Amino acid sequence: MTDNNTIMNFSDIVKLSELETIYFNSGCKPIEEDIGEKLSDREPLNRRSFSYLRQLNMRDNYVDDFAFQWEHLTGAFRKYSGIHLECFNRFGISPDNMKGKICLDAGSGEGRLAGICLGQADLVIGVELSEAIVQAANKFDTKKFIPIQASIDSMPIHNESVDFLFCWGVLHHSKYPHLSLKEMWRVLKPGGELYIWVYAITEFMLRRSLLSHHFSKFNVNEMYEIADLLTDTAHLTKTTSLGFSNLLMDDLSFSIKTSKEFTRLLMFDGLGPDYHYLLGKNWFEHQISKLSSVSSYDIQEVPWTVVRITKT
Ligand SMILES: C[S@@+](CC[C@H](N)C(=O)[O-])C[C@H]1O[C@@H](n2cnc3c(N)ncnc32)[C@H](O)[C@@H]1O
Question: Cα of 239 to ligand 1 centre, how many Å?
Fold first, then answer.
């Protein structure tokens, strides 16, 4: 990470009003396209003048897969506010822990978790690879939220500038998990805390990871059709032939949810992505041993993998 790529020095950021100037001077391009009508009736002083910041605009099957998912499949998912709060419970924290802090949501998707932090934190930065960043930007147009389209393995953010960083369900899907971890550590301030949630290593997940190797070769539309067909079949046979439905779920490593919409989303999300690493305790211990200034860490593996690392 060179200084040319950085966009801000958080230690300088006391007044939020200065943020935009700092961004405009950076190598990061401010995107203004979605500003306008959608934002016009909000309080002008608290609005950003740009929609989001873009370091890169990646388009490939992997990135499009996530963009499609957020754009077309997450309707039902968003409504379950309990699920989103539960993520913080699994980290063993409450959104109150973010009071007065600069937080980073690494791989923020459309911002469901960033949104929860916004009520507490001084500033929330959402870094997201896919076009889902546009949804996050439109949802939260306050200056307290900085949406950045970038990869978490190379973020346009200065060293040691974030108090609190969380990464939910992303590291196992990132192309270079070890680089992403190193990069998240780089931007964390001394005294800062880093929380990571990844898939647990179970037989179910192992099978899913092997299957996704094949499913990831489909483009988004093909994958959508497959997920749609399998969802219909699973929901139908649940009432007509439970044995078949169980077999299907078992073989393809998915579970039937309360609605077809939800089942389809999790099927698409579970089998579609290109990278589906299983990162366990040994992997994390090895990576953490390479980080400097680690004050303490915990790795929980059951029933899901949660990692907490603090910096001296
Ligand atoms: C399963 S979703 C989780 C999103 C969000 N953390 C949440 O819990 O709602 C994984 C997200 O990680 C993003 N992602 C994957 N690799 C990434 C990378 N290298 N940099 C930034 N985001 C990435 C995907 O685009 C996707 O939106």
Answer: 35
> How many CB atoms are located within 10 Å of the residue 143 CB?
16
Domain range holding 228? 205-271
The tens digit of pLDDT for each residue in 150-171 reads: 999 988 888 898 999 999 999 9
Residues 229 and 177 in one domain: no
Q: Half-sphere exposure of residue 63, counting CA atoms within 13 Å on the CB side?
A: 14
Are 92 and 165 contained in the same domain?
yes
Which of 58, 59, 64, 66 to probe ligand 1 with, by most ligand atoms within 8 A of CB? 66
Mark whether 244 and 141 lie in a shared domain.
Answer: no
Cα of 167 vs centre of ligand 1, distance in Å, is 8
**How far apart (Å, rounded) are the C-alpha atoms in residues 168 and 211?**
22
> For atom 8 of ligand 1, which residue has the closest CA?
168
Q: What is the pLDDT of residues 33-54, one digit of tens each?
A: 544 444 444 455 578 777 888 8
Give 51-68 pLDDT, tens digit per residue: 888 876 666 776 777 777
pTM of the model: 0.85
> Which pLDDT does position 52 carry in this prediction?
85
120 token code pair: 């507490």
Six token digits for residue 36: 């306008």
- What distance in angstroms lies between residue 244's CA and the mean position of ligand 1's atoms? 33
Give residue 182's pLDDT. Answer: 97
What residue spans of 111-162 are helical by DSSP H?
A: 112-118, 132-139
Co-location of 74 and 214 in the same domain: no
Q: Are residues 111 and 216 in the same domain?
A: no
When pLDDT is averaged across residues 232-254 and rounded to a whole number, the result is: 89
Query: Measured between alpha carbons, how far is residue 105 from residues 43, 144, 204 in Å?
Result: 25, 13, 27
